[in-house]
């Protein structure tokens, strides 16, 4: 039976469908002792979070522990979902706009409301860059307003498109390896290299999403 290439991303819509809970499936396999007793993995994990927190504090004008914790948690959550999607028979949540918009839109809306409530003059000043000629000011206000409105969409689409692209390549190679014959060894090597590349993409896209969200926050704070 012929199926659509994008059918691998179709979520199950049954009454008892739990595929959106795949974001938490990794927590079921991590023993409770892992979180409370230091080991080399948890120490390495803490070092990564500490480095990320220092970088995010450099981007934020107000170095708040709560803000840094929020964005580090966002990075870990997206990274976890991206990596889980590389495993077979696990639903890839981050390849759907419903998932990514659920992350991007509330963040963007919160930043906008916070900026207009507490830094109103600062928000209006951002609509007209410094040194703009008087005749171009109305156009710059329109352009800056549109760029602010499309921010959640660009965040969501960027993450979704990158996740879909890698999974489509792996799906195409997997389907072609069935009837590849003598070329199966070469295709398997390409699959391994592509898997390593996708692992890097998972980390990079999580970092990009977090850094852009931090920059949007720093503009209104």
UniProtKB/TrEMBL annotation:
A single Gene Ontology MF term assigned here is: proton-transporting ATP synthase activity, rotational mechanism
| Segments crossing the lipid bilayer | 20-37, 69-91, 97-118, 130-150, 156-174, 186-208
Give the way it sits in the membrane. Answer: Multi-pass membrane protein
| Coiled coil segments of this chain | none
Q: Name one GO cellular component term.
A: mitochondrial inner membrane
Against InterPro entries, the record matches this protein to: ATP_synth_F0_asu, ATP_synth_F0_asu_AS, ATP_synth_F0_asu_bact/mt, F0_ATP_A_sf
- Family per record: Belongs to the ATPase A chain family.
Q: What is this protein called?
A: ATP synthase subunit a
- State the taxonomy lineage: Eukaryota, Metazoa, Ecdysozoa, Arthropoda, Hexapoda
């Amino acid at each position: 039976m012929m199926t659509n290439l994008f059918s691998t991303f179709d979520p199950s819509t049954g009454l008892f469908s739990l595929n959106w809970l795949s974001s938490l499936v990794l927590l079921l396999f991590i023993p409770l002792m892992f979180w409370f007793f230091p080991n080399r993995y948890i120490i390495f994990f803490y070092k990564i979070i500490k480095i990320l927190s220092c970088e995010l504090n450099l981007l934020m004008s107000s170095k708040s522990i709560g803000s840094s914790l929020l964005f580090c948690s966002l990075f870990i959550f997206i990274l976890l979902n991206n990596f889980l999607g590389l495993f077979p028979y696990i639903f890839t949540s981050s390849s759907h706009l419903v998932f990514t918009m659920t992350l991007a839109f509330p963040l963007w809306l919160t930043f906008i409301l916070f900026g207009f409530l507490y830094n109103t003059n600062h928000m209006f000043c951002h609509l007209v860059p410094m040194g703009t000629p008087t005749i171009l000011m109305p156009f710059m206000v329109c352009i800056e307003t549109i760029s602010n409105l499309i921010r959640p969409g660009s965040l969501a689409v960027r993450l979704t498109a990158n996740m879909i692209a890698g999974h489509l390549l792996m799906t195409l190679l997997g389907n072609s390896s069935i009837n590849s014959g003598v070329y199966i060894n070469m295709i398997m090597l390409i699959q391994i290299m592509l898997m390593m590349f996708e692992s890097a993409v998972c980390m990079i896209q999580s970092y990009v999403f977090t850094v852009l969200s931090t920059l949007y926050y720093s503009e209104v704070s």
